Amino acid sequence: MTVQVYGVNHIAIEVDDVQKAVDFYSDVFNLEMLHGGEGAAWCQLGAHQFLAIFEVEELHPDRSKHFGIMVRDEAQLAAVREKIITKYGLETEPGFRCDFRDPFGNRIQVGDLHDESLVWMLPYQEVQEAGIKFSDD
Q1: 9-32: per-residue pLDDT in tens?
Q2: 3-state SS, residue 107
Q3: In the chain, where are the structural domains located?
């Protein structure tokens, strides 16, 4: 049998203050909080994905591990950049459109749906409903 992968169900991050993390992700990305499940908190990331937040005593940020969050367009990407810099005092990673480390050291890469490298996402209902097109054909 050949395995068919349909996407990522969830990602998990470690934080040292779960309420601060919930407040941050709710504020920056307008994520809806879910109840129950693995981890100290769940945030819905899309129709079928979630962010599991685990509280730990000691953080161990990694140099290259990261996860990507998709927003609709450049305006939303700019809004994320503006908020993380002005409200949270975070810095973006040089050479990237919107890569940054959250207040707990987790690296996040924010992209938008107009990125042509995301052509593999076309079957997703959310992208189709958003009317995203990658060419003028």
Answers
A1: 889 999 999 999 999 999 999 998
A2: strand
A3: 10-55+66-130
